[in-house]
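Sharing in case it's useful to others searching the archive later.

Someone asked me privately for the predicted structure of Putative pre-16S rRNA nuclease, so I'm posting the question and my answer publicly. Question first, with the sequence:
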Amino acid sequence: MAKVLGLDVGDATIGVAVSDSLGWTAQGIMTIRRRNVNTDLSSLRKLIREHNVSEVVVGLPVTMNGRPDGQTHKIIRFVSILHEAFHLPIYTWDERFSTIEANKALDAGKVNRKKRAEVIDKIAATIILQGYLDNKNEKLAVLEG
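And my answer, the predicted structure tokens:
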């Protein structure tokens, strides 16, 4: 079955997570170091093929009051590029608290600063994707129930 890819896109890195084939759980798989759009797309294309991805969820940064800012517009442009390159459904998901949650998880695990920098984006992508999957599955349960 097809999977969902979750992305936490920043200026320097892209955290990547993928769902299980049933679409219930998210697992962080890697952090891509960004170089340029073509290299980013090549890396993502490989992951989409490897994991049989049918849709992509991208964390959408907004201000605490839910309004767009400069980073929001960058991500919307990137989402447009992804859609054009891959011809897959590309969704955005509010990522306001994903980095905070990721840091709390790393604090609980007593992860040191060096290791934290290596995994924070991957964990944020996992949180973004899990939120999307939980919401999607809740809606399906209501429709079925």
